[in-house]
Amino acid sequence: MPVTTIAGREVHVDAEGFLTEFDEWDEALAPTLAHAIGIELTDRHLEVVRFLREDFRTQGETATTRRVQTVGGFPVKEQFTLFPAKPGKKMAYIAGLPKPKGCV
Amino acid sequence: MEDFLAPDFGGSEPSGRHMAIICSKGNLDMAYPGLILANAALGEGVEVDLFFTFWGFDMIMTDRADDMAFSPAGNAAMRLPVGNIRMPQALAPAPGMTGMATRMLKKQIAELGVPTVPDFLDQIVASGGRLWACRMSADMFHVTEADLRDDVGGIISAADFIEKTEGAQILFI
Predict the structure, then answer these.
(1) In chain B, which residue's Cα lies nearest the Cα of A104?
(2) Which is it for strands A9-12 and A3-6: parallel, antiparallel or unpaired?
């Protein structure tokens, strides 16, 4: 896995740029990751990101937009507003998680 | 630009791709392929229009969408729940078989966290998908807009749908 420097810190990423090590991420990285994909992070974005991190910790996989709505309580419509066009992948990226694998 | 490798999500605008999905089947198992693909496409920034026609109408009818059924009849791929044994087709039309198979399928779908047909359509609309009902089917089944979900954009002709989906990739299910 390539190593890159993000916000002054060395982290492992995959070929696309997604972080690959759960523990190399913390909230201090989130604004930089968000900025890199054109998103200015707000507290609401961070609430979604925190849910994703916590859910990944217990489930071992990245929540889909469906799960972020039903379990996390963030309506799909709002997810599309916060993370336009490709919410599932964008929020996973900012949270330092792999792309969601689930179909729904 | 950042000085590190970040994924290219193509910005905040839609991808420019457009899909037209025509749902013509009213069996529960055949409702899902269109819903899953529509949802996946929307999550990738693809514009999606769904056209419901013939038996696919049940998917958008408020009193039927949650009452769709699955029958093993005519489905040679159907296996018994245990033993990887093909289900004899002679059993498929037996009384109660459709109800049992439907309950099983609904349970399996729910266990995967996949929504029911009406909930799935809610999600598709919330994601920006558009729903359209077929004029000929409405006339044939004596259905009006009052029988359909509120978020159906309208009862339109096939020609109208073709016009709305100019340049789209078409999927007929």
Answers:
(1) B114
(2) antiparallel
**What type of residue is B105?**
L
Task: Indicate the helix (H) or strand (E) that contains B152.
Answer: strand B152-156
State which amino acid sits at residue B107: K
Q: What is the pLDDT of residues B133-157, one digit of tens each?
A: 999 999 999 999 999 999 999 999 9
Q: Is A59 on the interface with B (CB under 8 A)?
A: no
Instruction: Work out the angle at residue B114's Cα, subtended by the Cα atoms of residues B138 and B109, and round it to the nearest 5 degrees.
Output: 90
Q: Is A74 touching B (CB cutoff 8 A)?
A: no
pLDDT tens for each residue of A60-92: 999 999 999 999 999 999 999 999 999 999 999
Locus of tokens 């604004």: A31
Compare CB distances from B113 to A67, A80, A88 and report the shortest one's residue: A67
Q: Given this model, what pLDDT does residue B17 score?
A: 94
Task: Tell me B94's DSSP state.
Answer: S
Concerning whether A103 is annotated as a catalytic residue, the answer is: yes
Which of B2, B13, B114 is opposite residue A104, by nearest beta carbon? B114
Residue B2's pLDDT is what? 60
